[in-house]
Design a protein that fits this description.
- The protein is of the alpha/beta class and 273 residues long.
- It has one domain: Metal-dependent hydrolases (TIM Barrel, Alpha-Beta Barrel).
- 31% of the residues lie in helices and 17% in strands.
- It has seven helices and eight strands; from the N terminus they run αβαβαβαβαβαβαββ.
- The chain has helices spanning 20-29, 60-74, 93-102, 132-147, 179-191, 214-222, 244-254; strands spanning 34-42, 79-87, 108-112, 155-156, 195-199, 228-231, 258-263, 266-271.
- The strands form two sheets. It has a six-stranded parallel β-sheet with strand order 1-2-3-4-5-6. Strands 7-8 form a two-stranded antiparallel sheet.
């Protein structure tokens, strides 16, 4: 299924070595005519001593200059949009607001939670001393705490990202156990006029679900949620657009009839083909 891919990482993200030219080539080979680059910028990301290169600080001036030049070269046959995946947490909401004010030329901003109480769930230490369910629940609590003070984004990314790294993954994940806090998250997102994404990155990482779980997608729709984008979360070119057929099925199952693209942070709705 050909959707514009709205969650992509390149060599500008510290956890990717993907060349921009290879990303565009991969997109074109699949018939895509538009993508949005969303390289990582995580404010105050705690750098692991063993992985100093993973600081997730984006060189914004070079990033934007490079992508704007590339956008001009590709137009009009290919429409390149410029976005950022902004890592947020309760302690950085004011810095996040300032970041957005200083970068008003972006097309799209994904807000994502990667850090919980100073730890990235990517590392096994996050789950040490607590159950999977407790680790999952704390992740949702931190998203809610963040949203109570910060809503300057377009969509919230991979809402149950933490499940990727739980020791039991989906076998220990029941969204209904966390739905009270998830409901509050979704209500804030809907009431603030923003959206969420379907993130297929978990599917090629071995999970039998995209982010978020279908039950969360359905609840978001039931609460009036309409704004939704589709992203592969690809860090290598071969995964651009991965599992978008599955994303289409999930959207339709959850009751959506359209998806969104963004330009200058304004959403445009497109009918799901």
């Amino acid at each position: 299924m050909i959707f514009p891919d709205y969650h992509l990482h390149s060599e500008f993200s510290s956890d990717s070595e993907a060349k921009l030219s290879d990303i565009i080539d991969s997109a074109r080979q699949q018939g895509l005519t538009s993508v949005c680059l969303t390289d990582h910028h995580d404010i105050d990301f705690p750098v692991e001593v063993s992985e100093e290169r993973l600081d997730f600080q984006l060189d914004l001036p070079t990033y934007k200059l490079t992508l704007k030049k590339l956008r001009e070269e590709l137009a009009p046959e290919f429409d390149l949009r410029i976005g950022v995946e902004l890592g947020v947490m309760p302690s950085t909401t004011e810095k996040a607001r300032n970041f957005v004010k200083e970068n008003g030329d972006l097309d799209f901003i994904i807000a994502s939670t990667h850090i919980v109480d100073g730890m990235d769930p990517y590392y096994p230490s996050y789950f040490e001393g607590r159950s999977d369910a407790a680790g999952y629940h704390r992740y949702f609590e931190v998203i809610l705490d963040t949203l109570r003070d910060y809503t300057d984004f377009d969509v919230y990314g991979h809402l149950d990202y933490v499940v990727r790294y739980g020791p039991g993954q989906l076998s220990t994940y029941d969204p209904s156990e966390h739905m009270e806090v998830i409901d509050e998250i979704l209500k804030i997102i809907v009431q603030s006029g923003h959206g969420i994404e379907v993130n297929t990155g978990s599917l090629y990482k071995g999970l039998p679900m995209a982010h978020p779980h279908i039950d969360i997608l359905k609840r978001y729709r039931a609460l009036g949620g309409e704004i939704i984008t589709i992203g592969s979360d690809a860090h290598i070119p071969s995964r651009v657009g991965a599992y978008f057929d599955k994303a289409r099925s999930l959207l339709l199952e959850a009751g959506f009839t359209s998806y969104c693209t963004f330009k200058k942070r304004i959403p445009t709705f497109h009918k799901i083909p």
